[in-house]
Specification:
The protein is α/β, with parallel strands linked by helices. The protein contains seven helices and six strands, in the order E-H-E-H-E-H-E-H-E-H-H-H-E. It has a four-stranded parallel β-sheet with strand order 3-4-5-6, sandwiched between helices. Strands 1-2 form a two-stranded parallel sheet. The longest helix is centred in the middle third of the chain and has 28 residues. The termini are far apart.
Length: 231
């Protein structure tokens, strides 16, 4: 069976270059399936709808949707900028919800009854970090926790066997901290140097585990931290 994976992103042309580079690396390595980058500003609903329209035209539709995009701004509750708060809501909450809705509609119109929607959440969606620059971000991730359970309930009410799952990692060594602390690269680097962090492959393995569960098994949430992480 040919598997098509699609990457969507919302940032700069640098990210664009990296995604195309990754696609080329997968092809040259001889991996099965095809990785197809698609540029999409997830803070813009029109872009998201255009992406799903292109998927329908080129690949029939979506069977598995993994909502992976997320961001944080260093904006405390007492002094943060409204635009930054709104940006976190737009990407972490609204874009996830729009992609979920469109993925479900794609499955429904093609009578796909064994699909899966996976939200890459955060441990920040389960406990509040005692750091002012994380509080609003954690609020958006608490929303993801609630949205995933709400989605599970609605899928049951719709009498489908489509599954909904959260994967909630702690600290993962990616570019996340450098974007979060973009004015203080030393602080960002210290986040990853203080402990042995999770790697992107660890999250991918969790996704594979969730997708490979027997059809009657509903995995609600996978919470995972580095062993050395305290909070």
């Amino acid at each position: 069976m040919s598997v098509h994976a699609l990457i969507r992103w919302r940032t700069s042309s640098g990210s664009c270059h990296n995604c195309y580079k990754l696609a080329a690396e997968c092809q040259s390595a001889g991996y099965s399936g095809t990785l197809i980058p698609y540029k999409c500003d997830l803070s813009c609903e029109e872009d998201i709808l255009s992406m799903f329209s292109a998927i329908k035209t080129l690949h029939q539709g979506v069977d598995v949707c993994i909502n992976n995009a997320g961001l944080a701004h260093n904006e405390p509750l007492l002094s943060g900028k409204t635009d930054s708060w709104r940006n976190m809501i737009d990407v972490n909450v609204l874009a996830l919800s729009i992609c979920t809705r469109e993925a479900y509609q794609s499955m429904k119109e093609r009578n796909v009854d064994d699909g899966h929607i996976i939200n890459i959440n955060s441990m920040g969606g389960h406990r509040m970090v005692p750091s002012a620059d994380e509080h609003f971000y954690c609020a958006t991730k608490y929303a993801v926790t609630a949205l995933t359970e709400g989605l599970r309930q609605e899928l049951r009410e719709a009498k489908t066997h489509i599954r909904a799952t959260c994967i909630s990692p702690g600290i993962v060594e990616t570019e996340f901290a450098f974007r979060h602390h973009n004015s203080d690269p030393e602080k960002a680097a210290a986040v990853y140097e203080s402990i042995k962090c999770l790697k992107a492959q660890d999250i991918a393995s969790a996704v594979t585990y969730v997708l490979g569960a027997p059809p009657h098994v509903q995995i609600g949430d996978v919470q995972m931290r580095p062993v050395e992480q305290m909070s």
